[in-house]
Amino acid sequence: MILAIDALALALVVATAPAAFVWLDGSRPSPLVTAAPGSSNGSPSPGAPGGSGTPTQAPSPTAPPATPVPTATITYGDGTWALLPPMPRSLWGAAAAVLADGRVLVVGGSAGPSSTSALATVEVFDPASNSWAAAAPMLQARAYPAAATLADGSVLVVGGSRNGLPLDSAERYFPDTGTWVSAGTMSAPRTQATATVLLDGRVLVLGGGSQGSPGYASTNAAEIFDPATGTWTPTAPMSTARASHTATLLADGEVLVTGGASTYHGPRGTVTATAEIYDPKSATWHSAAKMSVARYHHMAALLPDGRVLVAGGWALTSNSDKSLASAAIYNPATNSWTATGSMATGRARGNIAALPDGRVLVVDGVDPAYHVMATTEIWDAASGRWRLAGRLGTAVMWPALAVLHDGRVLLAGGALDAGASHETAASEIFTPPAP
Length: 435
Hints:
The protein is mostly beta strands. The protein contains no helices and 29 strands. A hairpin with a 2-residue loop joins β8 and β9.
């Protein structure tokens, strides 16, 4: 499938086939959780904007506050993507989080083909004016971080990679003051990890790559961040070390984890078909039924009826594996998987979004020939089938993606080729067609 190397002192990419590689040193952006309005409960802590050295408090943002946007009814259109003004800079591998007032925070990413070009920059998209503005930079440059919006409206950003090494630090953005504060240190560095907001407001961080070159090993460690106390607490580890897996909050508050790989690049990794479920009430794991095929760099979304749709990905970590088009549904009530319609094209390292009306959208990624993708597909639960929707103006891999309050979907940045040798500042917005 793909071969990727990102080491502290290595700036060259080596691959056995043209375009058959992609940098894999960062965490997959976590599923977005739209925060409920609330006030900040933290105070600024020392931190060094964009790097190391003497800690300093982050400066005030230049992005003006936006007028709060109330939750809107779903906006339907013709199912096409419309171009927006570009972001201030080109990047890929950023994370996105929706703020309580409807704006979208795009954090970090990389301005080059590896995390040696990691960014601390933060951009804010305002859907009321269709405009971008810069906000205060993060305390730490992070390529491929994970981000989650908390119940009080603040945004937690964890891990990622810089200079080829996974990061163990976390930080928190308070929109009311426009400042970043330290959110402590995790028990292990993590890249390609997941961050899931639990029903009680805590955040479960799972797995990911915990070592850089030469091992690029994944971890099974899990830990929980408590926003009320600002502290990290280790919890029971997963049964399997995983990176590039998925973690989905179920309707009952448990978390389903699927797939992943034992190393996060190259032909040495083993991809798993196993799944397991975390119970935050007992802080324990129990096994779930296996998927019919091993997957990593795949996608997962919770459906309105409590089931989970899983699609795409790769089944091997060699650079000859083709992106999967197959999809399956996990039913927690029966602990079983059922095949559903396949996508029109295999897609790995793509983005997925659960639309407010219950349908599921997938977009961008890498196709079976290792070309980046511009296609969009929508899955409908009633038919169990996918249908093609509008094409992006620019084919990309690993952009930032966010579902707005009115159901439209924002896509920003991304790599223009599977090797991430070029990136874009383009942004687009998708208005879904009526069901």
